[in-house]
Specification:
The chain contains 18 helices and no strands. The chain has about 525 residues and is mostly helical. It has helices at about 5-40, 45-60, 60-70, 75-100, 105-125, 130-155, 160-195, 200-225, 235-245, 260-265, 270-300, 305-320, 325-330, 335-355, 400-435, 440-465, 470-495, 510-529.
């Protein structure tokens, strides 16, 4: 270890391993995109969700400003977003059940149509009331379209590729959003050149592009119906596995009826897996919601600086999520999830330690207090030099201020990227706990849990931040510790041959196994005859 040449060789070996991993991940994502586009069953949904992701991000920068131009207040903007989220909260389980019972093509067309109609009405809105109506319609479409498409992909493609499908879906949609945000300045410049004196018209034109992409998806899916899976997805997944003569890794639950599967929802396996999804969503929402407040209150950063941070998070999310399948093959799903949760735990601990290890000035105990100076923004401390004990406002004249800023940004970036990867992993684990015939319903339940975690994180995080800026970090620390205990227990149980919530073989029942074997034998005999 003391040999410099040996150290350089080790470093070079590690660098080659990382480059090989990234190269493998890049090739796999490209292969998945080509497969989704070439497969007639998935081509139309793939094009629809790609165009919808691009269009929604193209106008994202002007949406809030358009709301303000129509007279909406900050509270109204929050209510509009809450309506869209709340509608999706109740629609997602119904959509999942409908896809398992009736098929996914109709639900896909309705979601695309609702998305197009909501965006169209929002672009034509002339009052805040009309914005509320469009937000409710968008809850039926925009909040469900991605869920429906990724559920359809998971049902059509092989079940053992669940993590690859989920990570690939995230990578492709986020990459398109980054591209849309990158070309938005050119798009805005063109609109300013055409309409230099009418800002509202520019906003309406920018918003109108989204509904065009979604409406194109409706037409595209309608004419592609003969090539898509029209039968109920639950039946399709079950028949596909039986026709291959394969036994599910989750045991005999693939042959269970819906009524028999109802007890699984209340089983410890699914309840603990659902808790992991909920905890991850709460932790992700807390940091996502509070980070702009943190950088504004502590460093005085504006929207320009924070937009750069969001771009870095998006790029890091794409890179990290793309290598999740490769890491999963080497360490296992639970092993990668444990690494991500440990990384998130350590970064939160370091964020808390930044307020202790370096000198700082004391800030106000009310971080959400409005400033009397309108030039300082909506959410600023009234006094940076108060002697109250918050412990998080650093002096800009301190010689360590640049180091503190860099460390804070680095730790939060790593924390958010780790949580985004953890979201993919726990979604995969939670949906694999339920039987394959419940593929769509499992995604609907997981989406509902994720939305509930977003609501809880928004309310609890902001309430704790109003009391003291360190309280949400302590809560996030506890949540990550709970997840670490979950994954450590699962790793221990896997090593000793036990079945736990985090293993794919979670449900074992001799009676149902025999029923499955009988059904499989009957199907095999019919095929041979």
């Amino acid at each position: 270890l003391l040999n410099p040449l040996h150290r350089s060789r080790v470093t070079l070996s590690h660098a080659r391993t990382m480059l090989s991993l990234l190269h493998e991940a890049c090739n796999e994502q490209i292969s998945l995109a080509k497969e989704l586009h070439k497969n007639p069953k998935t081509r139309a949904p793939f094009e629809t969700v790609c165009l919808a992701s691009f269009g929604s991000s193209l106008h994202e920068a002007v949406t809030s400003y358009f709301y303000l131009k129509l007279g909406a207040s900050t509270a109204d903007i929050g209510s509009i977003n809450s309506i869209t989220l709340g509608v999706g909260l109740f629609v997602n389980p119904i959509v999942g059940m409908h896809m398992d019972m009736r098929g996914g093509v109709g639900a896909m067309m309705l979601a695309s149509l609702a998305c197009a109609l909501g965006c169209f009405l929002r672009g034509l809105a002339r009052s805040v009331g009309q914005l509320f109506v469009s937000a409710a319609i968008l809850g039926f479409g925009g909040g469900s379209l991605e869920l429906i498409v990724v559920t359809y992909f998971s049902a059509v493609l092989d079940r053992d590729r669940r993590s690859t499908i989920l990570s690939g879906f995230v990578v492709q949609t986020v990459a398109l959003r980054i591209f849309a945000k990158a070309i938005f300045p050119i798009f805005a410049y063109a609109l300013t050149t055409l309409f230099p004196n009418d800002e509202v018209i520019r906003f309406r034109i920018a918003l109108s592009f989204c509904w065009f992409f979604c409406f194109y998806g409706v037409i595209r899916i309608y004419f592609s119906r003969p090539y898509m899976v029209l039968e109920p997805l639950g039946k399709f997944v079950k028949n596909k596995a039986l026709s291959k003569g394969e036994a599910f890794s989750t045991g005999p639950c693939s042959a269970m009826d819906a009524a028999e599967c109802g007890g699984i929802i209340a089983s410890p396996s699914f309840m603990l897996a659902a808790s992991a999804v909920l905890i991850t969503s709460v932790a992700t929402t807390i940091m996502t919601i509070l980070w702009p407040l943190m950088v504004m209150d502590r460093f005085g950063w504006g929207t320009e600086q924070f937009s750069v941070l969001l771009l870095l998070v998006a790029i890091g999310r794409v890179v990290a999520t793309s290598v999740v399948p490769q890491c999963e093959r080497r360490l296992g799903t639970v092993g990668v999830a444990l690494c991500a949760s440990v990384l998130a735990f350590v970064t939160v601990l370091l964020l808390i330690g930044l307020g202790v290890l370096w000198p700082h000035t004391r800030g106000s105990n009310n971080p959400l207090q409005h400033s009397d100076d309108p030039d300082r923004g909506l959410l600023q401390h009234q006094s940076i030099n108060h002697n109250d004990t918050d412990g998080w406002i650093w002096n800009s004249n301190n010689s360590n201020s640049s180091t503190l800023t860099t460390l804070h940004t680095l730790f939060v970036l790593i924390h958010l990227i780790a949580l985004r990867c953890l979201e993919v992993l726990v979604r995969s684990l939670a949906t694999l706990v339920l039987p394959p015939s419940w593929t769509s319903r499992s995604f609907g339940l997981v989406a509902t849990l994720t939305a509930c975690g977003g609501v809880i994180g928004s309310f609890v995080g902001t309430a704790l931040y109003a009391s003291a800026s360190t309280y949400p970090l302590y809560l996030s620390l506890v949540l990550q510790l709970v997840l670490i205990v979950f994954f450590l227990t699962s790793c221990y149980s896997q090593r000793h041959g036990r079945k736990t919530i985090m293993t794919k073989e979670t449900i074992q029942c001799d009676e149902l196994r025999s029923r499955y074997d009988v059904e499989l034998a009957c199907t095999t005999n019919k095929r041979e005859s």
